[in-house]
From TrEMBL:
One of its GO terms (molecular function) is isomerase activity. Keywords: Isomerase, Manganese, Metal-binding. This is Sugar isomerase. SUPFAM superfamilies: Xylose isomerase-like. It comes from the Bacteria. InterPro entries: L-rhamnose_isomerase, L_rhamnose_iso, Xyl_isomerase-like_sf, Xyl_isomerase-like_TIM-brl. The lineage of its organism: Bacteria, Pseudomonadati, Pseudomonadota, Gammaproteobacteria, Alteromonadales. Residues 107-290 form the Xylose isomerase-like TIM barrel domain. It holds the Pfam family AP_endonuc_2.
Amino acid sequence: MHRIEKSFISEENQQYITDLNKDFDYLGEKLSRSGLDIEKLTDAAVKFQIAVPSWGTGTGGTRFARFPGVGEPRNIFEKLEDCAAINDLSACTNSVSPHFPWDKVDDFSELKQQSDAVGLSWIAVNSNTFQDQKDQAHSYKYGSLSHTDAATRQQAIEHNLDVISYGQALGAKSLTVWVGDGSNHPGQQHFQRSFERYLESMKKIYAELPSDWEMHIEHKMFEPAFYSTVIQDWGSNILAAMELGPKCKSLVDLGHHAPNVNIEMIVSRLIQFKKLGGFHFNDSKYGDDDLDSGSLHPYQQFLIFNELVDAEARQQEGFSPAYMLDQSHNVTDPIESLINSAAEVQRSYIKALLIDREALYAHQTANDAMMASSELKKAFNLDVSPILAMTRYRAGGAIEAIATYRKSGYRQQAAIKRPSTGGNTSGIV
Ligand code: RM4
Ligand code: MN
Ligand code: MN
């Protein structure tokens, strides 16, 4: 397998460790003045893991074009190599979320062996009924699980059941369902009937879910349907999840909301009703742009983690969300974007751990808006980079992950080993 040697990473770390130790000690001293233990924070950061989407390892592209990079992975085995490189450097991405049929192979035990060998596991298998595959009997042009035609719905149901069986072979424990079903013209679709058809189909999938699995529903405001989508918002999402049962939960993709929507409050509601299944982290300015996590709205991401850490601290029942990235990398090397994004999400988590919860609750009770918001800002404004770097170092990753990646020549070697085949099915997400 194409890999970055551990010995190379530790040699590279040597040039940074002296400065890191100084920065870490300084930060530790500063934090201790507020009663915070840097070692505890570092332990928490070591435990924090976020999954990489297999489809994110290739250049995404837009509806207009895709400009592929060199040495892109051409199949799931090569995507797995890239995921291993990301985890070897970042030390916080030890699982992969695959997408079918893009990642379908004949022998899943071989794939499982490869992932075991590089220390990666599989979580959240994704179904795809938003594209037609060749030799497919019924088209998804007018929908899939909610289609007006029963045979098309049945085909979409069976695909989801197939995906569950692939996931079982890989040791995954959840199915994520996102459908592009919706309409482009007012009047095109009967809102209630299409939602009823969707629920009827989903009930059939839910009934076949292995006992230790969860099913996660992902909503999306628009695209490819530009007037209405069947699972448009968190309202439709949680209604469907409640209708389906306790093993069905909502998944929050940050890019799938209307601009200015208060996502952190949605997260709080989902936590309260035991319906938070997980996240697809990314960032966006206009719509589902799938920009790198934290690249534009790091404060929003921090506020989301404020809710998550709060639930963790209160030991909220039924709280165990799955963290995943879901981004489209158009102009960067996907490996670099994924390394950076994972660290940015981890950063939000660590900063949220700095919040003095007792003080915050007291300010909330006293209706002291100024002090309550200052409490959050105090945590957000602290630079926790030394904790992130020390976490990578202690977990065997790279102190300077991007610089080490570039120096390793991984992409240049991939360009030689993986000559372009002209197509990458998972582009344009
Ligand atoms: C969608 C959505 C889903 C992902 C596809 C590829 O916009 O975010 O999570 O399965 O893209
Ligand atoms: Mn998504
Ligand atoms: Mn999306």
